[in-house]
Amino acid sequence: xxxxxxxxxxxxxxxxxxxxxxxxxxxxxxxxxxxxxxxxxxxxxxxxxxxxxxxxxxxxxxxxxxxxxxxxxxxxxxxxxxxxxxxxxxxxxxxxxxxxxxxxxxxxxxxxxxxxxxxxxxxxxxxxxxxxxxxxxxxxxxxxxxxxxxxxxxxxxxxxxxxxxxxxxxxxxxxxxxxxxxxxxxxxxxxxxxxxxxxxxxxxxxxxxxxxxxxxxxxxxxxxxxxxxxxxxxxxxxxxxxxxxxxxxxxxxxxxxxxxxxxxxxxxxxxxxxxxxxxxxxxxxxxxxxxxxxxxxxxxxxxxxxxxxxxxxxxxxxxxxxxxxxxxxxxxxxxxxxxxxxxxxxxxxxxxxxxxxxxxxxxxxxxxxxxxxxxxxxxxxxxxxxxxxxxxxxxxxxxxxxxxxxxxxxxxxxxxxxxxxxxxxxxxxxxxxxxxxxxxxxxxxxxxxxxxxxxxxxxxxxxxxxxxxxxxxxxxxxxxx
Length: 481
Hints:
It is a single chain. The chain is of the alpha+beta class. The chain is 51% helix and 10% strand. It contains 18 helices and 9 strands. The radius of gyration is 30 Å and the shape is flat. The N and C termini lie far apart (105 Å).
């Protein structure tokens, strides 16, 4: 780094400790106070926009007001000149110890240690939430274990600054954070409050007890899809000695709907501490197998899965209806072709109206869906898929129906412009999901308008030519007096 080894003429960078999506962390020395500090040099993504840098400073100042033993103290915030623009940096308390991510490399923690660590983190979150600060990026690498039951939570305020910066730059409300710990509302771009941190705590506790997060996949998009639509596997299936009480706390924290989670960090901490107490109280249930039909802690039975697989969603039903109508159109003997084109258009319009309310691919905002399509498909093949989740199969059916319609239109030219427009609706229906969730549905309306205008112009030209031909033929066929 050369001259950049000293930031602000005060903080000397001694050793690089790590690097992440938000920047690099260094061990440094405060040359004025002669103490060791941790310096986080933020990525250049914040360097180009003065408003983003101002927002980062505000968030850092708010986080610096936190005064709690489990929160890493923020000492200073500043900017370092850089060819790409001033790069913000954050000077924090230097915490010695190991992150939970490093501890988990040796396997899951004992139940008591995992619960005690989670309770310590919840104490820090309760303190920050009471002051209106949501962490937004709770994960093992942001939690330092400094003693048997003591932790330090790092990076308060940084995730929010990055989220608002991404929204300002891309206009997409992109999800910022680690996919394994993102709440459904963060993925879908909905309003976020302190309950997003409680969801991340459920993910964290699941990993501390089992050695793995609740959802895993071949790509970030596949993981986020599970956060939105898949029920987490109960931890007792992965580690049978975990009590139903602890399992119930995790299941509640991982509720898709924020309203079904704990009201605040204090309530979750109390429930977790009580569950730990119950875990060490010998009971008959703890020494005997559970009946398969019971569901302690929100466990899902086979019958529940079977019922959920038979519960179709509105847009899935409309898509399947569109496939059926298109196939009937291709088989002209079953439907009056003179009117079927307009019936197909009406069915397509209903599907189009329903799509703005669809959240099927809302996580595509933060991660490009097209690039991840193959990985998502392979993930879905291993999942418990119901009609509401099998959009890949629906898209394939729509493509097949579109091909049938195209063959039918080419072979029978007398079907008219109605069948052509019906084919266009069917052929593009599989793309509606992507356009809608990328907030680009206006592109569909634009293309539809172009096709409609072109079709109307073509029909008008044909009508004028036909009328002109009839007028020319009329004098020739008129009888002479």
